[in-house]
Model the fold of this input.
Amino acid sequence: MIVPQSSDLEAQWAQVRSLLRAEVGDTAFSTWLKPLLALGIEGDRGLVSVPTQFMRDWVAAHYADRIRSLWNGVNTQVRSINLVVQTKGASGTIVNREQPPLRVVEPQQRPVNDTPDELSVQLDPRFTFENFVVGKPNEFAVAAAERIATSPKPPFNPLFLYGGVGLGKTHLMHAIGHRFLQIDPSKKIVFMTAEKFMYQFVRALRIKETITFKEMFRSVDLLMVDDVQFISGKDSTQEEFFHTFNTLVDRGKQIVISADRSPSDLSGLEERIRSRLGWGLVADIHPTTYELRLGILQAKAEQLQSDVPQRVLEFLAARITSNVRELEGALNRMVHQASLTNRAVSVEMAQEILHDLLRANDRRVTIEEIQRAVAEHYQMKLSDLTGPRRSRAIARPRQAAMYLCKQLTPRSLPEIGKKFGSRDHTTVMHAVRQIEKLIADDRQLADDVELLKRRLMS
Ligand code: ADP
Ligand code: MG
Done:
């Protein structure tokens, strides 16, 4: 039985919350701890509800012990806490999820010092310079990456690599790491995704009495952070990222950053950080050309030690233009299918088993088509999409249309802005982010966007 102890419980919880807030700071508090509710006390156990499974795991790993200990300070009866996942049901009622509550009892001893090895992802032995096919679209980025990997001192700092999905950014970062260690195996490398970086950061906040985030990276010679577009938005993380960044640069350590867009398009980042990221060398990886795709396929076929006729490679290179990951996937599927069915790889086979992929690559949605579909769906005038009116009823569909253009066409932000009444690229960026954010909560909008997307792609 849960004893609710109503007002007393509320008072205790309010105290625990304010102590927590003081400890972890406003940002971490409102992200992770504000949504927690005290449900009651059961024997010596404090019951705390968490809205999602993900948050439960995070809170359990980072804050549960502090909650337990602070609550115990307020009410000595509470010696352990249970985290219970409760979601809001459709009718607004609270629903208990199936997962058993997570119990936090003992003070958890955590290692205070992370070694760089623990922070970093392992380098993938397949992702080397040797295995990277160089062509016009990526030769500049490759040259910059090789320069970084072989220079005793940073020739430019940071190296900022950017380009679309599946064009080889992560591969190149691994390759830099391999070469760097080949030349001097005693060097320390940390290679992490921006998400891991954030995770480590929030964790460092928690144990701030003994270690600062910066110090975790003190012994590192090369720091590589992949996909930094995910850092945008979280203020204190940005701040810490910036400090860490500057400290390492001052100490002559090399930094490599990747993102899916240029520094100036990282609209979620503070201006000074954005501009700082562009101080080194900015190298973009362009979409692949037919020649590069063919070269990559030839190299991969050789690696697979499989006899794929040149005609088939040419067919794939011509028809799968989206990104290298899909190209690789297509080749793998073909080779796999051939060995399963004991048939030779052929163009006919490609047409058969890659049907969907080929179709997806054939679709060419234009900005105009998107605008027409959106105007029709929301029953508004086409001219309102490109016109100056800013009322919500017009602005929201306009943002959705911009979002769809970014998603479904290869057009750049400035190009999209131009087609929407010469709006600035930052307006388009804002629209994209806004819609991304809204569809997480707004079912109606999410459905509209999904429906439009399907209609346009069919
Ligand atoms: P990104 O990080 O830019 O999304 P990845 O580095 O993950 O892309 O690359 C996707 C896949 O395509 C990987 O398997 C990578 O090895 C391969 N790839 C991309 N570009 C090339 C290239 N030029 N030569 C060989 N493989 C490539
Ligand atoms: Mg990547």
Remarks:
- Residues 2-106 form a domain with the GMP Synthetase; Chain A, domain 3 fold (CATH 3.30.300.180).
- Residues 127, 131-133, 138, 163, 165-171, 296, 324-325, 328 surround adenosine-5'-diphosphate (ligand 1) (CB under 6 Å).
- Strands lie at 37-42, 45-50, 80-88, 94-96, 102-104, 159-163, 189-193, 222-226, 254-259, 281-285.
